[in-house]
# Entry
Amino acid sequence: MTVAIGNDHAGTTYKFEIVKLLKNQGIEVINFGTDDDSSMDYPDAIHPVADAVESGRAELGIILCGSGNGAAMTANHHKNIRAALCWNDELVALARQHNDANILSIPARFVSQEDALQFVGTFLNTDFEGGRHKRRIDKIPASNC
# Structure
């Protein structure tokens, strides 16, 4: 499995720990984020993650910014991307089970590093349930209105 990761300056510390966790599980990581805490514009790191997931270079993506909002909004402008902003483990599981989220957006300034690592584990190990949820997912793109 390959996971694309992107972050702005607010998510750098968490990103390093997430990358370590992923690599320890034998997961290939494509790092599009900054590696320091100098201010940078989150779309510059998030668009490449969404592109990688959209193109199939990565199966899943993880994005981090201060609130997680800007990162999720940016990623969700890409076709077939379903980025979920999650701040607890139950939301992460539901995002995968019901929404087939393919990108996890973590609000680095509002969750602990320990929680963020737990979210990543849940994200990777929770499957989409399909069924009635698939019908709903198919209605998300605006072209279906």
Q: What stands out?
A: The radius of gyration is 14 Å. The first strand starts at residue 2 and ends at 7.
